[in-house]
Design brief:
The structure holds two protein chains of two kinds. Chain A is globular. In chain A, a hairpin with a 4-residue loop joins strand 6 and strand 7 (72-77). Chain A has no helices and ten strands. Chain A is mainly β. In chain A, strands 1, 3, 4, 8, 9 and 10 form a six-stranded mixed beta sheet that branches. Chain B is built from no helices and eleven strands. Chain B has strands at 4-7, 10-13, 19-25, 31-37, 43-51, 54-57, 64-66, 76-78, 87-94, 102-103, 107-111. In chain B, the strands form two sheets. In chain B, strands 2, 4, 5, 6, 9, 10 and 11 form a seven-stranded mixed beta sheet that branches. The termini of chain B are far apart. The chains are: A mainly beta, B mainly beta.
């Protein structure tokens, strides 16, 4: 598959452990944030989103935390599985929601 | 549903040649967008459309044209290919604005 990033930050976790992926966003006026997962050779896939009037949102095995004071976003994956191995991108939407700004990504590697 | 489809999957161009990358979606989504992805970087928005007949520029629009004559199709035209346009191109669509976008499988373009 395509190489999505030769020098991405990498997080390596043991299968079954929890993973935490962090992201700093740039625009304090952004009011909507998304996490995407990209597997090798594929397009990004939506995981979870959060609006700026929330500080936490939970999905199936995933939780997103938002700290607007320090412009920080995190994605927590519970009981990480080999299928979670991928590159994870945080993204922020500009005011109006028409333009998405992606972060550089973090590569998650799950050891069996 | 096929979701978002892109053709071709791979393409090699010589400097100065022109071509069109095709993108289609069958989900009746109003919002469509084009991104490029380079190694070590996240996705960058090239152009987007909020409906048939309406397009606007993203972060890196120079050297690319788009049009949206139907809800389903959103082609991206390279006017005169340059080596700097070597990249992986992704098309995406969503029901409304840039929320929860569905991505195509990508086109890997090499310009020599």
């Amino acid at each position: 598959g395509e190489s999505v990033g030769l020098h991405l930050p990498t997080l390596s976790v043991q299968e079954g452990d929890n993973s935490i992926i962090n992201c700093a966003y740039s625009n304090s006026a952004s009011d909507y944030f998304i996490w995407y997962k990209q597997e090798s050779g594929k397009g990004p896939q939506f995981i979870i989103d959060i609006r700026s009037n929330m500080d936490k949102r939970q999905g199936q095995r995933v939780t997103v935390l938002l700290n607007k004071t320090v412009k920080h976003l995190s994605l927590q994956i519970a009981a990480t599985q080999p299928g979670d191995s991928a590159v994870y991108f945080c993204a922020e939407l500009n005011t109006g929601g028409f333009k998405t700004i992606f972060g550089a990504g973090t590569r998650l590697f799950v050891k069996a | 549903n096929a979701g978002v489809t892109q053709t071709p999957k791979f393409q090699v161009l010589k400097t100065g040649q022109s071509m069109t990358l095709q993108c289609a979606q069958d989900m009746n989504h109003e919002y469509m967008s084009w991104y490029r992805q380079d190694p070590g970087m996240g996705l960058r928005l090239i152009h987007y459309s909020v409906g048939a007949g309406i397009t606007d520029q993203g972060e890196v629009p120079n050297g690319y044209n788009v049009s949206r004559s139907t809800t389903e199709d959103f082609p991206l035209r390279l006017l005169s290919a340059a080596p700097s346009q070597t990249s992986v191109y992704f098309c995406a669509s969503s029901y409304s604005r840039a929320y929860e976008q569905y991505f195509g499988p990508g086109t890997r373009l090499t310009v020599t």
